[in-house]
Amino acid sequence: MARTFSRRRVLALGAAAGLAPVLGACGDGGSSSSNGSTGPVELPTYKPVTSATPDLAAEPAGVSPGYFSYPTASSAASQPVRGKAVTALTYTYDPIAPALGSNPYWQNLNDRLGTELKITYVASADYKSRVATTIAGGDLPDMVAIQGVVQQMPAMLNATFTDLTEHLSGDAVLAYPNLAGLPTDAWRSTVYDQRIWGIPVPRARIGTVLYTRADLLAKAGLSLQPRSWDEFKQMAAALTDERAGRWAFGQIPFNTILEMNGITGNWPGGVGAWQAKDGVFTHSGTTPQFAQALADAVELVKSGVVHPDQAGAPNTKRNQWMLAGTTAFTIGLYAGWGKFYGQAKDVPGFRLTGMLSPTRDGTGTQVRTPGPTLSSFTAIAKTDDVDRVKQILKVLDWLCAPFGSSEYTALRYGVEGQTFNRNGSDPTLTEGGRSQTLLPVRYLAEASPVVYEPGNRQAVQDQYDHQVAGVPLAVPDPTLGLYSETAASKAASEQQELDAVLLEIQLGNKPVSAWQPAIKQFMDRVGDKIKAEYEEQAGR
Among 41, 56, 118, 351, which is most exposed with the fewest C-beta within 10 angstroms? Predict the structure, then answer.
């Protein structure tokens, strides 16, 4: 077990490193090696829970179910909560919702729960510092969303939060049926030092998507799925007309090119950039396939198919280019797919699909980088009051009610006739409901994702088809469930320096040969140590 540190000591350690992205990706069910230790821990038993039969089944494993319309609401398996108020700290990506006194949506949640849910939240960009100061002050709310990894993560959790293993491990989780419906992989990144420390907020297994204006490709007579690198380049050239102000890509599709060369992992940032075989870890940046992918990216940029202003352009600008038809592709996380439909409501014929990466030569097996298994997990402040822990777990279980249940409807839409109305069976938020439902309860806990786009059957089918094609290709991240103190405490600045060299090469400001000394420096400074820590935990 890790040493126990005071909260102020943990703060000092965490503040020195800041928070890094969660290193989770996809894997299969079963036991897991815990973060920061060796040997398996029994993860919560997985028992799927649904409120309504989907129109598109969750098959193969890992694919989200699809619904063409909102099902008739029924009560979920969650239990009403009683007892004193429950407090929480979490984050948001949205504007601030109205306060409790002027928020009927929030008031209804408390009525349904049978207890008061008091939520404090801040913008995601400011969240890591808020958590650090809250831990330092020692006066934690009952629940805290843990977003990312800090230095001495196992020690911080042990010093500050409640060990939930006896409440959730194995069949114990069945006392909270909606929590038992959360996917096995999502629990892995909640485990440190052989203990379960929180409730995961799960995400779909599809990660980064090469979003494709399918209507533009159809107009140009192009296939939605090229079969090789050569076809990919030909497609890009056909979509580019610099004089007309059109380019294929709004940014360099480097992850797509990596996957064409058999490499998974999100770059820049290097998240998930490790491969493993028989317990031996290899950083993908050291492989010949990575060097080939880098040369391919340089070739693509030189061919002029990438928007000339792509360097430094924010994602919002790149999305605007794609929506306007200035580019045919943009790259983003799968969780943002549905937002494009609202933004493109006035674009004639708009259709969005996701393109998979072909193999480089058109033969062999395609691969895909999986998405993170969770966006965060919610921990319970350290307490010896078992009854209080059970009450808080009931709150979290209620927040995980499945899609279509009356609880889910209350969580996402509020009160019919007040915060939402129906278009057929589909709920539609009122103007007041849109602001009230910005209360970020979903960043404390929520059910497994489904595919549902109100009134847009084609959008549901396209998302579902992309998952069916892409999920089986996902290569599990071998670092999932492992913890590297070196990665958490020392790698960030080295990774930034490595990514800067990567970008300079792609833009043609440095030769491809500049990569080898850069990756060697990274490995010498931190990479070899990270590799050793992963291999030790993997039982090498």
Answer: 118
Average pLDDT over residues 458-480: 94
Nearest to 177 by CA among 69, 259, 276, 78: 78
The answer to whether residue 24 scores a pLDDT higher than 80 is no
What is the DSSP track for 310-346? -TT--HHHHHHHHHHTSEEEEEEEGGGHHHHHHHTTT
- At 33, the pLDDT band (50, 70, 90 cuts) reads very low
Cis upstream peptide for 268 (omega within 30°): yes
State the DSSP string of 243-299: GGTBEEESS--HHHHHHHTT--SBTTTTBT-EEEETTEEEEGGGSHHHHHHHHHHHH
CA distance 245 to 87: 52
pLDDT of residue 6: 41
* Type of residue found at 392: I
Residue bearing the bigger pLDDT, 483 or 350: 350
Q: What is the pLDDT of residue 76?
A: 62
Q: What is residue 212's DSSP assignment?
A: E
Strands (E), 424-468: 426-429, 451-452
Higher per-residue confidence, 49 vs 242: 242
Instruction: Kindly state the helix (H) or strand (E) to which residue 535 belongs, with its residue range.
Output: helix 528-537
Detail the DSSP E strand segments found in 34-85.
40-41, 66-67
The residue whose two tokens read 């958490």 is 488
How far apart CA 513 and CA 270 sit, in angstroms, is 19
Per residue in 242-289, pLDDT tens?
999 999 999 999 999 999 999 998 888 887 799 999 999 999 999 999
pLDDT reported for residue 347: 95
Separation in Å, CA 301 to CA 27, 217, 246, 296, 361: 34, 20, 15, 9, 20
Q: What is the pLDDT of residue 379?
A: 98
Task: Tokens 């009160």: give the residue.
Answer: 415
**Separation CA 303–CA 236 (nearest Å):** 9
Report the C-alpha gap between 253 and 250 in whole angstroms. Answer: 9
Q: How far is CA 35 from the centre of its chain?
A: 19
For 38-61, b/e burial (b = at least 16 CB within 10 A) is: eeebbbbebeebbbbebbbebeee
Written as six digits, the tokens of 196 are 């379960």
Pairing of strands 274-277, 199-202: unpaired
Residue 60: asked if its preceding bond is cis (omega within 30°), the reply is yes
- 3-state SS, residue 159: helix
Which parts of 168-230 are beta strand (E)? 191-192, 195-196, 199-202, 208-213
